Amino acid sequence: MASIALALAVAGTLSLGSQAGGRGTASATPSPVVSVVGVGDDEAGYKGGLFDRRRRAAAARVPAVQRSAGYTFTSTLDGQSVRWDPCTPIRWTANTGAGPAGGLTALQAAVRDIAAASGTTWVYVGPSGATPRRSYLPTRAQAQYPPVLIGWTDGRASDLLAGQAPQVVGMTRNAWFGMRYSDGSTKAATRAAVVALDRTDTLPLRGPGSWEAVTRHELGHAFGLGHVEDPAQLMAAVLPRTTGELQAGDLAGLARLGRRAGCVSVP
Ligand SMILES: [Zn+2]
Questions:
Q1: Strands 186-198 and 170-181, how do they pair?
Q2: Most exposed: 43, 154, 158, 217, by fewest CB within 10 Å?
Q3: What pTM was estimated for this model as a whole?
């Protein structure tokens, strides 16, 4: 849920879906004056039944009107949700070496669902030996970005999982980059994400409370969704006990961030 400004960034906050979508006009081209950069991250995928009080308190602070929207966004910039460019294929890679047998199929199923719900194309670029940790993400804009990394690791190897409550089975962080222009407008896009799955947890591959469900939840964060209070949504801070599939609010949020909302062009 937290969006932490790294440098010169406008801190992200949770935002209503209805605030998103209005794009700037394409009139005179203002000059870029400063780069903006930030991250959105969210610990996630709590095992059913073990509700973390801190997360509950955070969810309770979300205004009622946002709770009813069925989805929230992790990062906003000047009132706009920060999105991936849904018109550019999103490359992803997996480190399944420390995961369960068949782990890649669970990841693939989750990726397929996020892609379908958001109208985006995800391209698997092959396996990775990289450890999912914070340093995987670039800290400044660059010509090329690493593929989205999803992988199993643990709190010893990954600072994403280190120190987390034992209920946490996954952690996601994404990074966005953009420019602020001389006329005060901003353009930014999410460019990279990393998903750490805790290998020390034993979960089924699919179904409620599964690796597939956790990965859907984490990829929801990677794509820009925050937690919701409604416990029936997959983006609730605690995974639903009854389903491992994306629910109506999750799907609506992904649609709001995806292809239907238009392309995101950032120089
Ligand atoms: Zn989460």
A1: antiparallel
A2: 154
A3: 0.82
Fold of 5-21+30-261: Collagenase (Catalytic Domain) (3.40.390)
Residue 267 CA to ligand 1 center (angstroms) comes to 30
Helices (DSSP H) in the chain: which residue ranges?
A: 53-60, 64-67, 103-118, 211-223, 248-257
Residue 122 is inside which H or E element, if any? strand 122-127
- Stated as kind and residue range, the H or E segment containing 172 is strand 170-181
Contact (Cβ atoms closer than 8 angstroms) between residue 181 and residue 77: no
Distance 241 CA to ligand 1 centre (A): 15
Interval between CA 44 and ligand 1 midpoint (Å): 3
Residues 20-60 pLDDT 10s = 333 333 345 667 667 777 777 665 544 443 333 345 445 55
* Beta strand pairing call for 80-81 and 90-95: unpaired
